[in-house]
Design goal:
Elements: H1 4-9, E1 11-13, E2 16-18, E3 38-41, E4 44-50, E5 61-64, E6 68-75, E7 85-89, E8 101-106, E9 113-122, E10 127-133, E11 146-150, E12 157-159, E13 167-170, E14 180-192, E15 202-205, E16 212-214, E17 224-226, E18 235-241
Antiparallel strand pairs: 1-2, 3-4, 4-14, 5-12, 5-13, 6-7, 6-11, 7-10, 8-9, 8-11, 9-10, 14-18, 15-16, 15-17, 17-18
Length: 244
């Protein structure tokens, strides 16, 4: 449960105040909120996330290990308009994509996106069985329809080590592997510096140990700007600008 200080403060979503079951510095083996749930604590914003197979350290930048799980897969059987359940035949065993998305990108029903409510990945037959959607299929699908399967942005987070993957945020505290936690995405935050840079420098992901580096080194995935002179190897205050 959240600490007494958190309970007194209360956390805010975009729709009003809530009392969090899990403090922002706590990690839980049990999922206590939907992935991606947003809370605001003062000037800071956090999203509910799931750590990957390695533990996470405080103050280090995180990336989604695999965002698009599969592309070009088809339903095992035709799916009528209005249905909310389908099975997809995949080319490899997949993870649980619950709270992620499927997108129809070719053939019948193309151009739509649906959020996944529940999914069961079947490792032995390489299928998603009983994939349940929040909203009904709008245009019927056939076995020739092609879909992409996308995980939630905050599923299976690891230390950022590339500049091309989706950058999710920063761990506010140490997190045990395969635990649920609040990932900071916006506002003042201590972040590991990969170079020594001036206050106000625009920062992007470094390729080393979840750190950040000035934009002149890499040009993608801007994550925020330094609030103070950044010293390489130290955790300096940044103003995160990832997801408001």
């Amino acid at each position: 449960m959240g600490t007494s200080a958190n309970m007194e403060l209360g956390y805010h979503t975009g729709d009003g105040e809530i009392i969090a079951q899990q403090g922002i510095y706590e990690a839980s083996a049990t999922q206590l909120a939907p992935l991606g749930t947003r809370i605001r604590v003062g000037d800071r914003v956090f999203r509910y996330a799931y750590a990957g197979g390695t533990g996470l350290a405080a103050g280090k930048l995180l990336e989604c290990a695999t965002l698009v799980e599969e592309e070009g897969v088809s339903p095992s059987a035709a799916v009528s308009a209005g249905a909310t359940t389908l099975t997809l035949a995949t080319t490899a065993a997949q993870t649980d994509c619950a709270e992620g998305y499927i997108f129809t990108h070719e053939e019948a029903g193309e151009g739509y996106g649906y959020r996944v409510k529940k999914a069961t990945a079947n490792a032995s037959t390489s299928t998603y069985t009983d994939l349940v959607l929040y909203d009904p299929i709008q245009v019927a699908l056939t076995t020739s329809s092609e879909l992409a399967v996308m995980n939630n942005f905050y599923f299976d987070l690891d230390l950022a080590a590339t500049v091309t993957k989706y950058i999710a945020g920063v761990a506010p505290a140490a997190v045990t592997a395969n635990y649920y936690f609040w990932c900071q995405t916006w506002g003042p935050c201590a972040v590991l510096q990969g170079s020594t840079d001036a206050a106000g420098s625009i920062m992007v992901p470094h390729t080393t140990d979840g750190s950040v580096i000035v934009q002149s080194a890499y040009t993608s995935n801007i994550v925020g700007f330094n609030l103070y002179v950044g010293t390489q190897g130290e955790y300096q205050p940044m103003n995160l600008r990832i997801a408001p």
